[in-house]
Design a protein that fits this description.
It is built from no helices and 23 strands. The chain is mostly beta strands. The chain folds into 4 domains: 38 residues, no CATH class; 84 residues, Immunoglobulin-like, CATH 2.60.40; 83 residues, Sandwich (Immunoglobulin-like), CATH 2.60.40; 36 residues, no CATH class. The strands form 8 sheets. A 4-stranded mixed sheet has the order 6-13-12-9, with no helix packed on it. A hairpin with a 5-residue loop joins strand 10 and strand 11. It is rod-shaped and about 155 Å long.
Length: 250
């Protein structure tokens, strides 16, 4: 609309503004000679949304909610950009994000109608942990220790992502230290697990048997005998635990 030469945008579109003489309405500006005015939609805000973290090698699609006046689908288009494409690259048109290397990047959605109106969302790219393999001795004696090791496959293949957290399925049988050293506590079997410190959902494990610790065998009985006669000898087995199950000899 126009009043006193002041033009007010009412709805998006084009209009031609003309003027006529008040003294002689026959005198004025013809429509083809008038001033063309283009009214654009008002973009109030852009609110991006999507995953807050991604693993290297994965992808996801961002979304953006555009608030405009009028609220019409044709004004909802945005253009995407990344503050660090080496960490997270984004398709300008679709908002598809590709996680490339560990780090942080701000993903910005700017209104296609009015690029001065935009919104940003941070995304953290984490290392991808592919597997954890546990190796070492399959058994240990009660009261003794043995070291296990964990091999972590990651992308990128960097020492910063090789840490693991150790745990035992049965600490009354076998305890494990933060360094992967297993100590036999009681006779039996326990599963020792190493979980990636970067992604606890990726883990590896190994079954460890804790055996009785036989510390010595003492034989007693006759020190001499006559040819043709027999004598009974006995054997005393020192073991931990001190249980008859571990006293057998051959």
């Amino acid at each position: 609309s126009v009043s006193g030469g002041v033009v007010t945008g009412v709805a998006p579109g084009r209009a031609v503004v003309t003027a006529r003489s008040l003294a002689d309405p026959e005198v004025g500006v013809a429509p083809e000679e008038g001033c063309e005015v283009v009214v654009l939609p008002r973009i109030d805000s852009v609110r991006p949304s999507g995953p807050r973290s991604l693993r290297v090698g994965s992808s996801a699609r961002m979304a953006a909610a555009v608030s405009s006046d009028p609220m019409l689908p044709e004004y909802a288009s945005v253009l995407w950009s990344s503050s660090d494409p080496s960490v997270a690259a984004v398709d300008p048109a679709t908002g598809e994000v590709a996680a490339l290397s560990p780090g942080r990047a701000a993903l910005t959605a700017a209104s296609a109608e009015d690029p001065s109106v935009s919104g940003s969302a941070d995304v953290e790219v984490l290392a991808r942990i592919d597997s954890v393999a546990v190796s070492g001795e399959p058994s240990v004696k009660k009261g003794q220790s043995a070291a296990l090791s964990a091999s972590v496959a990651s992308d990128p293949d960097d020492g910063a992502y090789k840490g693991v957290t150790w745990s035992s399925s049965n600490t009354s049988v076998a305890a494990v230290s933060s360094a992967g050293v297993v100590t036999g506590i009681g006779v039996g079997t326990a599963t020792i697990t190493a979980a990636s410190a970067c992604d606890a959902s990726v883990r590896g494990s190994r079954s460890v048997e804790v055996k009785a610790n036989v510390t010595g065998v003492t034989v007693s009985g006759a020190s001499s005998l006559t040819r043709g006669f027999s004598a009974q000898l006995s054997a005393a087995v020192a073991s931990d635990p001190d249980d008859s199950a571990y006293k057998g000899v051959t």
